[in-house]
Amino acid sequence: MALTVSLVVLAGIAVLILLRTGYLRIGPAFAAALFGFTLASTGIAPAINNAISSITGMLSSIG
Known about the structure:
Radius of gyration: 14 Å
């Protein structure tokens, strides 16, 4: 049985853990989120999505 979890959920959990442990402060986390939303509206967004899809495809074929 395969379990699929959105990359957004995994990244959100990682950011929450980093915030709770003190390795990441709220200011840089907000700046990174704002940068991500800005990047998603540019022309490079499809290339990033394709790269992430390729990486996850390779990882799923390994296991």
